[in-house]
Amino acid sequence: MIRTFWVAATGMSSQQLNLDVIANNLANVNTVGFKKSRADFEELLYQEERIPGAASSPETQIPTGLHVGLGVRPVATQKIFTEGNMEQTANALDIAIEGDGFFKILLPNGEFGYTRNGSFKLDRDGRMVTPSGNPMDPEITIPEDTRSITISSDGIVSVTQGDSDVPTEIGNLELAKFINPGGMRPIGRNMYVATEASGDEITGVPGSDGLGSVSQGFLEMSNVNVVEEMVNMIISQRAYEMNSKAIQTADEMIQTANQLRR
Length: 262
What we know:
Oligomer: single chain
Number of helices: 2
Number of strands: 19
């Protein structure tokens, strides 16, 4: 019966982590480019009391074994990279990706980060940067006398300057994708970095090689479904309560056994 305490404790601990994941999803329901997470679990080892197939007599075998599970543990938190809703902003520096791909960003440590957040700004040098100030790669610099910026669906960046009405092409956006985007490591600030699990980046212009196209004046919002997360939260809460009830019941059974008298 003591085993019940530890088995139920693993269930409570796992549901606590599950609730942490759900809470983070809900906290980022309005975060641009945020991708929701899902906690994955697996059962622990089994205590084998009887081996299936063992002989029960010279002519017969035991058809099924006797195995008692020892609980559950969290094994992964997986990012779900489904596309979020598009919100029109009419801001020339807001860019949404329609389809697969990430914007490639140069981080302060010299490594590259990847994001779906297309809320870009201009820094003091005219470079297109993230809200944290990190520039895109390849770098896009907007001239000082620019009157308007146009970004095509395949990533060509054109500007009109001064008194001229003729657009001038100044660069081309590139996107990156991965064989296993779920293997990327989230580092906060809507940013991911590549790992051995994600594989090497595959870069190209938007709309080519399976990469998505880009839409100027739009932002991709979070893909969190509030109703779905609320339902998951209720299920997690009930599972937590049932595991705590199992501990309480086991305690009452031990108490009853301790009170037996001859």
